[in-house]
Amino acid sequence: MKTAFITGATSGIGKATAVMFAKNNIRLILCGRRKERLVALEKELSNLTQVTTLQFDVSKRDQVQNAIQSLPENFQEIDILINNAGNAHGLSTIQDGDIDDWDAMLDINVKGLLYVSKTIIPKMIANNNGFIVNIGSIAGKEVYPNGNVYCASKFAVNALNKSMRLDLNEHNIRVSAIHPGLVETEFSDVRFKGDIERAKTVYQGFKALQAEDIADIIHFVVTRPYHVNIEDLVVYPTAQASATMLNKN
Ligand code: NDP
Ligand code: 8X3
């Protein structure tokens, strides 16, 4: 039975991936800051697979290390790491951007991914086995107006994904990135700081990707035969042709 460590499992893509993995008999370590959601998810999925949860903020180095060190014995061997935790904070021109938003995006999306990876990779190297899936974005392939720092954070994820592939190859660790376009999750609620009405308009007038669509793809990627490693996968809703071209009714 494989064990997966999923960051950002309390919502959206991470939560859907947890459900997909549980249905496919993968043991789960579910992470996030919202304790009540972790507790509810553990309860929901425990009848399908073994589940443990870790509450920590990926951008806090000490919390990351302490949480991972506290894992129960039977969850210490991690086969699959899904680096998914992240969000956009704000949508402004570079001249109007809020520096706290910039800090949050770089600290969570980039440094958080690094802190978690840095703590888990040694275990994978020791096992001479592992799989890391980094959730990037089309924002890491193409910048769009007002996307500036979020795009920069996802360009960094793209670069780190490629770097991990080079550095970890000799240790038999597979590394993949998935870059979704618009997925209907809590992403826009966070970007627009709880302005739910504005967030809803992002997904109106077309059929957005659903978190389950990305979970399905993640599961496909991690279940290829050992000699197969998908490096980079870009996925859009059918109505979206690029970061800046969306066909709304
Ligand atoms: P959600 O807002 O639904 O989920 C974000 C998850 O990240 C939550 O579980 C949240 O948990 C966790 N998270 C956020 N900040 C932190 C933190 N500081 N420490 C620990 N966990 C944190 O959004 P999505 O599911 O859409 O986003 C998941 C990933 O997908 C992100 O990396 C995002 O950039 C990427 N993505 C999303 C797209 C979209 O259109 N939705 C498209 C392309 C990529 P909690 O708040 O409990 O800590
Ligand atoms: C999320 C998709 O287009 O809002 O990464 O940046 S987008």
Automatic annotation (TrEMBL):
Q: Which Gene3D superfamilies match?
A: NAD(P)-binding Rossmann-like Domain (3.40.50.720)
Q: Does the keyword Oxidoreductase apply?
A: yes
Which keywords does this chain's UniProt record carry?
Oxidoreductase
Q: Name one GO molecular function term.
A: oxidoreductase activity, acting on the CH-OH group of donors, NAD or NADP as acceptor
Under SUPFAM superfamilies, the record lists:
NAD(P)-binding Rossmann-fold domains
Tell whether GTP-binding is among the UniProt keywords.
no
Report the InterPro entries cross-referenced here.
Answer: NAD(P)-bd_dom_sf, Sc_DH/Rdtase_CS, SDR_fam
Recorded superkingdom: Bacteria
UniProt-listed Pfam families: adh_short
Q: Which family does the record claim for this protein?
A: Belongs to the short-chain dehydrogenases/reductases (SDR) family.
- Name of this protein: NAD(P)-dependent oxidoreductase
